[in-house]
Structure formats: C-alpha cells, structure tokens
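Journal club prep — side note

Before the paper discussion, L.F. wants everyone to see what a predicted structure for a comparable chain looks like in token form. Sequence:
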Amino acid sequence: MTPSQNGHTSPSETLELPAPTAWPMVTALGITAAFAGLVTHPAISVVGIVLALISAVGWWREVLPEERIEQITLSSVELRPRAVVPSRPGIERRSIGAGGHRTRIPVEIQPYSAGIKGGVVGGIAMAVLALAYGVIGQRSVWYPINLLSAVAMPSMAQASLAELHAFSLPAFLIATIVHGLLSVLAGLLYAVILPMLPRRHMLWGGVIAPLLWTGLIWALLGIVNPTLNARIDWVWFIASQIAFGLAAGFVVARAQPLATMQSWPLADRAGVEASTARSGQEGDR
C-alpha cells in the first residue's frame, strides 16, 4: 500500500497480490493422468508425468527467482464501505421448547422394559386371534401354528391340508420360538418409535403400522413363497396384527417415560465433576 503523509490513504493506493496462474491446475491434471495410466494404458502415465514435470517447472518459475505480483488499484476512502463495528448483544436463556427454542426429539423416551412387556402382551393377543381363526375357519387349532412354522420349515408350506390340521411337535416348538422372538422385537421397536410418532399414538401403532406391515409381508410372500401366501387368510391376519399393535401400544404408552440427556445440566451431560451450586446454575439456564 501507499499511504500519504497525513495518515490517510491516497486515491491512487494500490495493493499487491500474487499474480493468477493456471500451473497448479495443470500439475493436478498431470498427476491424475499419471495414476490413471496404472489402470488404463502406460502411455497415459507417460503423458501425465511429462505434463506434471512441465507444469511443476512453470509453477516454480512463478515464484523464483522473483515472485510475480499483480497491482490492484483500490478505490478512494470515500467510496469504500464503512467498517463493521462488532457488538455483543445480550443473550436470553430459554427453557427447552419454549418460544420456538430448538429441541432434540424425542425429549422423553419409553423404557425398553415396557417394550418387552408390550411385546409379550401383544403376542398373547395376536395368538388368541390366530387360534380362534384355526378353530372357526379351519376346524383345527394346529393349522395357524403349523402355518407359522413354515417360516423356518419349508416343508410345512408344501404340506397337505390334513398335515396342517394335525399336531406336529417340531412345528409347535418352532412356531412358539418364532412367535415369541418376533413379538418381543416388535414390542421393543414400538417402544423406540413411539416417542417420535405424532399424536394419536394408538392410531399409528395400532392400525396404520400393522396395515403397512401386512402389506409388506403380502407383497414379499407373493414373490418368495406364493403357496404359503395363498394359504394365509389375510383378513384374520390383519385382525391379529391390529390386536398386537393395540395391546402392545397400550402397555408401552402407559409406562413412565424417561427424560433424555438434553434436559440434564451441562456439567452432567459433559461428564465432568461440578459442585451442586454450579450444576443448579447450569440447570437454570
């Protein structure tokens, strides 16, 4: 810069900047071509190495023995924008969720134990409806059990109607294990998703989610196992899924929710030791 004697900058003030150059981009292109030739053709690597060396020399000569510079003429002081004066406005502390304050969702979560209990209760409700379908629709309480065991026993999907009506110990054990595991896992999933659902939790978890889940199973079975798909009474299946969702949702929704860490004081969230007064001060913020 060229300041005047009175301390103000003159109208002809200039600023020295490094001159623009394309050599860095050419160097990058040469290095890229050199490595690209390893998976294409050696000639590309040769061209890339030559190009990288030439551009490296050109880039070197931009700064040695003397650096190339460019003179930028600055406008007069009167035409320049005013300097920005920093300010420190006061900060108003708000509670979580008050006045549009940003929050982390969910604020509260359901305990996992409630999900397990809900899964067990929902599994019992679903099993009662499934067995009722076996007695009413198929005149055999073992029909839905044997049909469920086809998930792990492919032979049951091809079994005759008489075999599906008869008792089978392996099918009974497999169906019980599969039903229990799926019910507990679905209950845990319900407990995790429930706090993130909008209002009317029973509608989402008891009706909408079972309908979506049933549609997914129907579509997959129609491709993977059409024979098993044809033997399932989907009206009773939907009814049993809705019974599971309502029963599990009722148990999970009645559980005492747990507050997440965002409601804790800063010192507790950071895991540092702090006095009681300091923790209380952070909690008030």
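L.F.'s comment for the group: The chain has twelve helices and four strands. Keep this in mind when we get to the figures.
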